[in-house]
Amino acid sequence: MSDTAEIKHRIKSVSDTHQITKAMELISVAKMKKAMEKHAYNAAYFDSVRMTIKDILRHSSDIRHKYIDHRPDNRTAYVVIAGDKGLAGSFNNNVLDLAWEHMQGRPVHYVITIGQMARAFFESKKQPVDLEFTHAATNPTLHDARGIVRDILDLYDKNLMDEVIVVFTRMKSTVSQTPEMVRLLPIVGSDIKVEVNSSFSGEILYDPSPKEVLNVLVPQYLVGMIYSTLIHSSASEHAARMLAMSSANKNAEKMLDTLRLEYNRSRQSAITTELLDLSSGRFSDIKQ
Q1: Nearest CA to 148 among 83, 222, 40?
Q2: DSSP character for 182?
Q3: Where are the beta strands (DSSP E) in the chain?
Q4: First-to-last CA distance in the chain?
Q5: H helical segments located in 115-209
Q6: Measured at the alpha carbon of residue 117, what is the angle toward residues 119 and 98, in degrees to the nearest 5?
Q7: 3-state DSSP call for residue 229?
Q8: What integer is the mean pLDDT of 247-263?
Q9: How far apart are the C-alpha atoms of 139 and 246, rounded to whole Å?
Q10: What backbone phi and psi angles, to 5 degrees, belong to 217?
């Protein structure tokens, strides 16, 4: 009977865990869809900004701008985006390992973390974190993106860094999320992955000047880039957690089936033993 009680306790424990993982799976599905909807709402505007910047770079000769001109590539700043918590499979490990591996080839670099898991990772590596944003990863907003860009531009304008790279996880599908690196500054035309719908190859005049137009557009471009990476990372985290919880649910169901079978066998064995004891006792009484 002690074995039966123990198995029954294990069944209850696994059932309770299964209910939690099932709820987490459903929550992750809802949050993932919400994140991608937010990205779609703003994609048209930010694509227009990127298209305009790429158009300026294509059609303006000898343009000089502090966010376009290359500096000596000695001080790279990494903006590393991870999650605020685990239980998402290899989501955090993949993006953090990519960032750490790339850093090893850079003699001087700065680290800006978004998400508590990113901060904890670099602390474990004894790598100082220069800036941290711990709440922007869970539910990213444009306000968060503007604050991050403002701090990055402040450091860049003070000539404290030569290059800014964002390391994040791109959401390709619900079953495919890939860690990637994107150069944020300085801006290079080939880095802007958007098609310019123009066959004109001459020089375009901008009023008052291409530089003044870029002064307005570049911050918007950077906000759009950071916001997009935050959204992709958030959606990827929820997708990875959804898959992890789905796998946990299947394992829990298999475990419950095994435990229930074991419980029934143990219970049947206990009943059989009791019947044999009763039969043996009754036979002894008759014999006496």
Answers
A1: 222
A2: E
A3: 75-81, 108-114, 131-133, 163-173, 176-185
A4: 30
A5: 116-124, 142-157
A6: 85
A7: helix
A8: 84
A9: 22
A10: -80, -35
Q: How far is CA 125 from CA 75, 99, 100, 169, in A?
A: 19, 12, 9, 21
DSSP code for 55:
H
Give the span between the Cα atoms of 240 and 247, in whole angstroms: 11
- List phi, psi (to 5°) of 138: -70, -50
Q: Look at the block and give the residue holding tokens 């066998």.
A: 265
| Residue 133 pLDDT level (bands cut at 50, 70, 90) | confident
Alpha carbon distance 104, 78 (integer Å): 12
Q: Bridge-partner residues for 133, per DSSP?
A: 114
| Amino acid residing at 269 | S
- Cis peptide bond prior to 219, omega within 30° of 0: no
Beta bridge partners of 171: 177
- CA 16 to the chain's CA centroid: 27
Which structure tokens are listed for 188? Answer: 């290079």
- Find how far residue 210's CA is from the centre of its chain: 36
Whole-number average pLDDT of the chain: 80
pLDDT digits (tens, 9 = 90+) for 214-239: 778 888 888 888 988 888 888 888 88
